[in-house]
Amino acid sequence: MSETLNNDSTKKQLGFEYQKLIALEYCLNAKNGEYVYIECFGDIQYGSQSIEVKHHAEESNLTSNSVDFWKTLKNLVVEYDKLKSNDRFILHTTQNVPSDSIFYNWNQLSKDVKYKKLNDHSISATSKQFKDVIFDTKNIAKPDLLGVLEKFIISSSKPKVDKKLAQLKEHSTFKLIPDNLRKAAIGVLNEWIIEKAIDESNKWEVNITDFNLDLRFSLSKFTKDYIPFPSIKESERDDTNLTKGYKFIEKLNAISIRKNDLHQAFQDYVRSEEAYEEILKINPTLKDNIIIYEEAINSGLQTEKNAASYHLSNDSFKDDSHIRKSQEVYFKCITKPYNEILGFNGTQAFFRNGRIQNINETTDFEWLYKETDI
Fold it and tell me: 49 has which bridge partners?
């Protein structure tokens, strides 16, 4: 196909990734004793500032009818009682403000001029619903709206997600970390911030004192002589993955492995493949370390299977005990202690187990015993 479908979910995901980077930047620049709030009082709340973050993948303008502006202001009006103590409301956007927009030179305008520009503007249908709320005195008195407009600034033409990531890599926090590891280090800090939402879903709060304490520990592993193992999340369970013709799944079915264990095997396989790609991005020469690691795994599989075959006889193939022995070998191989990859720290069990599945996918090794194995 020469054209791709418009993927709104991808754009939304990019927007969320961008918001996380902006939130991380605030955390990195904040001081001990301060707090950063995410999705509590706007996209980000720092001190007495409420920040709405808007990311646009393509080049675009903040026009007079832009939903981003009107919806943001509407939300400030609706939540006025909660936010009125703030000193500043910031619309942080990657969009540019053209000279023919009523928002041109917005930050230099007085509150009264801002009010008049907004009130006089003949709004488009898409943003009219927001303007109606803003200028409805049942929602907010005019003096209060003027107060909001006085505090409301537009921070436009901000760098997009790729450039923001590049900027963060140059932050002083990461100056002792090798360039090729800085993206991973940023990912670790973002994961820490996300865990705060998981810990307390009703209030996504980052205590900067705690953040800085953990930061030193989390980043210390990136300044050593070894490389931290990449963090790869599990994907959602999908039963159709077990019927897509993967050889390693077929080999596990041959020894009657249950469905839940099949799903775990598939998850390990996928995550190990993703980790493998991430490792090569860090340094392509690390492929040699992975080959050595896989060779040791392959040798271990053969040894375990050969050793267990001494407990089988020709009679084992008459009562299916050879299948039970095959199961024992499989579970022993995926549960025994695993080694670090040379040059890495924190190698995960899923990677070893995923490489086991990869070996079954790409070689003739099978778990199921045959009479020729004894």
Answer: 46, 88
Report pTM.
0.63
Taking only the tens of pLDDT, the chain with its 374 residues reads 344 435 566 777 888 899 999 999 999 999 999 999 998 878 899 999 999 999 998 999 999 999 999 999 999 999 999 999 999 999 999 999 999 999 999 999 999 999 999 999 999 999 999 999 999 999 999 999 999 999 999 999 999 999 999 999 999 898 878 888 899 889 889 888 988 877 776 788 999 999 998 888 888 878 776 788 888 888 888 888 889 999 999 999 999 999 999 999 999 999 999 999 988 887 777 888 899 999 999 999 999 999 999 999 998 998 889 999 999 999 999 999 998 888 888 899 999 999 999 999 999 999 999 999 88
Chain centroid to Cα 366, Å, comes to: 36
- The helix-helix angle for 287-308 and 349-362 (nearest 10°) equals 80
φ and ψ at residue 345, rounded to 5 degrees = -130, 135
Boundaries of every domain in the chain: 8-220, 239-373
The CB-side HSE value for 128 (13 A sphere, CA atoms) comes to 5
- The one-letter amino acid code at 267 reads Q
Spell 286-324 as b/e; 16+ CB within 10 A means b.
beebbeebbeebbebbeebbeebeeebeeebeeeeebbe
